[in-house]
């Protein structure tokens, strides 16, 4: 009796090399964006850039790295994660090296705001796909370990950047960082196609279909945070399979449409014949018949055009799962998270400039940022256990982290001592650890897992739009006020808007459920 086998991802072995490549890329590349303000704080002052221009440079990098996800699905499907990661490495290395020679606002916008951000966005998507392609049952452990190793970058890089700035200046430091970032080529070459390492597994006919479906759904969900169209591509494949199973219905519909089209063609032919025929003695009757035929022809063309536009709209809606936008609760979650991300991202990238108002040195600012990162990593690990202990939902824990961020930012305005600032940095790190963990859990806790990829894709796109549109506003407020105090007020107000939106919605839903229960009890 022959044993049936199938090829499956290794879920170990070379897959751990993929995890190392994932951590290596994020370790070197992510801190460049996070510490860009630390590197160029004094240079921007010397170049007399306004706060609006500085904010545009910093926010455009974050925004375009999110918006690039809209094309990542087809790109990864066509080229594979290895080639795409090499393209990303080329973009980010070129962007950092060109930025080291930048002296004008437009130059910074092109090199850092566009080229570097594209490379960063491409890299995050391709490495995420590689990691999830190699792992199945150990996917959670591999992702957690990879994120932990990558998290050491924001801890160590501020101190290293401070040393480079002291030893080589801004231009020399950025050139060296460009060389360090070029190590992403090494990590990209490590991303070998998964088919090279597939292993044989004995088929269990009873559980095979269920397991395959579950793994596909998990892969789709995991990649969605980095690749906006990945879910759409899988949805299209499933749709095609479903359509192939009802091909007979499609053929009947196609035949019907062909008859309608043929009908329209006949009307057009009759119209042309009517134009060529000699005029009848009764010209008025001929004219009325001609007008009637033309009206029918126009109606047919109009209906065909409307039908084509309707089909295109339907395909776009299905591809991106835009029906999610009909759900008011999802819309509230989506916009609330976009506002919160906008606020947190602006505070993070502007932290060196905010601390500059306290007359801190570059090493002191670097230490402040390292403290934030250390506590962030620790509480990323602790946050799930604390959430389970408190027995609160993911959205409630996310709201708690936002309140903690608001309070801590306000505390930053009330102190000036360096030791007190370090305590505030530790509290910010704790809040960021909670926020990072529960940010990735809020959407899947509401949206069905099979729609999570599309929902996350929409979320990332909206995040990019909000960050790109709102970033210059923060800088403009700094230019008007002359300091960053008012910027912190605005950032906190945006964060509180999310808290208010979600709280009102959750109380309303709870009130409706209670009323429904009471009405059901009254009927019984």
What is the strand and helix layout of this fold?
Blueprint (H helix, E strand, L loop, with lengths): L4 E4 L6 H20 L1 H11 L4 H17 L4 H8 L1 H19 L5 H30 L4 H43 L2 H6 L9 E4 L2 H20 L5 H16 L1 H30 L6 H38 L7 H29 L5 H29 L3 H20 L4 H25 L9 H30 L3 H39 L1
Antiparallel strand pairs: 1-2
Helix pairs in contact: 1-6, 1-7, 2-7, 2-13, 3-6, 3-13, 3-17, 4-5, 4-10, 5-6, 5-7, 7-14, 9-17, 11-12, 13-14, 13-17, 13-18, 14-16, 15-16, 15-18, 17-18
How would you describe the overall organization of this protein?
The protein is mostly helical. The protein has 18 helices and 2 strands. It has helices at residues 15-34, 36-46, 51-67, 72-79, 81-99, 105-134, 139-181, 184-189, 205-224, 230-245, 247-276, 283-320, 328-356, 362-390, 394-413, 418-442, 452-481, 485-523; strands at residues 5-8, 199-202. A two-stranded antiparallel ribbon has the order 1-2. The chain is globular.
